[in-house]
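Postdoc handover notes: sequence design on the structure in folder B. Input tokens:
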């Protein structure tokens, strides 16, 4: 089979599209012929060596995709079933070995491309607004990187809960994307952004900040109201400074860490949350832009495009 691989860490130039052995079917698993694969920042971090990788070179990144079962060694799922997965390694390939517990059956109204566009980002937003911090009506929510995939989902889910949403972006051209997602205010991340937030909240600050940038963590606390919460779930801009527990005590503020895999511990939980997301898509309670598609063989170009920051759409790799 063909796969997008790399044998050393580095920039997109290290990626090689090459022939490798097809995975062997094992007990309680299925072999899936992939039809669409989601590209995520985590894949870039792994390519660079920032995240842990399983196995030995040549490495294959990717954790999210959808396709058709070609071989099955489990009782629940059969050859020909349409399925998706969100936490299965080595997905940047024509065939992926998927454990039974990680299978997410696809309803007829969810295409392979839609499933690969929404699962990782949509499920991340779901636990952030319901588990890390349960957003309530009239909460004032600030979202970093609000024009990105998770940011757009977060905005829509918070608005579904009747919260007030402010979205931040570094790119002036993406302010419209934030407003199109339903945010009440789109704010440019410049030297004055904290003053803008405090002015909008009459000096009180926001109820909760969703910070996926990392190095902005201290800034996020500065514009959070007393007894407010900062949810830290990513480091796209670099590692945060250490937080002084005395500051948390003095201001009665809360710091919450977030990781999706803490909430997808069982097959039942994985399918339950995915089906709730599919239902919201069907009912148009959340919507996404048309994804940007590259051939799997064009993986280097896809990585370059994602890293450029030009896209607000999900990027898919098509085998």
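Designed sequence:
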């Amino acid at each position: 089979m063909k796969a997008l691989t790399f044998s050393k860490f580095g920039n997109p130039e290290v990626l090689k599209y090459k022939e490798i052995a097809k995975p062997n079917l094992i007990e309680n698993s299925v072999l899936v012929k992939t039809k669409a694969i989601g590209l995520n920042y985590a894949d870039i971090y792994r390519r660079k060596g920032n995240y842990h990788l399983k196995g030995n070179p040549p490495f294959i990144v990717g954790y999210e995709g959808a396709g058709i079962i070609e071989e099955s060694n489990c009782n629940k799922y059969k050859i020909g079933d349409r399925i998706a997965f969100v936490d299965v390694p080595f997905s940047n390939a024509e065939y992926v070995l998927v454990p039974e517990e990680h299978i997410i059956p696809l309803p007829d109204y969810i295409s392979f491309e839609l499933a690969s566009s929404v699962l990782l980002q949509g499920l991340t937003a779901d636990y952030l607004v319901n588990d890390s911090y349960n957003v309530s009506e009239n909460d004032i929510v600030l979202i970093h990187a609000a024009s990105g995939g998770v940011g757009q989902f977060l905005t829509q889910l918070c608005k579904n809960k009747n919260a007030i949403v402010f979205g931040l972006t570094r790119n002036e051209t993406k302010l419209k994307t934030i407003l199109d997602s339903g945010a009440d205010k789109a704010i440019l991340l410049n030297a004055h952004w904290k003053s803008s937030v405090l002015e909008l909240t009459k000096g009180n600050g926001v109820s909760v900040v969703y910070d996926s940038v990392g190095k902005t963590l201290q800034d996020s606390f500065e514009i959070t109201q007393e007894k407010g919460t900062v949810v830290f779930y990513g480091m796209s801009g670099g590692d945060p400074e250490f937080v002084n527990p005395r500051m948390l005590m003095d201001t009665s503020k809360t710091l919450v860490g977030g990781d999706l895999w803490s909430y997808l511990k069982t097959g039942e939980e994985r399918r339950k949350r995915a089906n709730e997301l599919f239902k919201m898509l069907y009912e148009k309670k959340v919507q996404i832009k048309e994804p940007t598609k590259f051939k799997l063989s064009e993986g280097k170009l896809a990585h370059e495009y994602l890293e450029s920051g030009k896209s607000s759409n999900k990027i898919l790799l098509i085998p």
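Context for whoever picks this up: The mean pLDDT is 95. Don't rerun without checking with the PI first.
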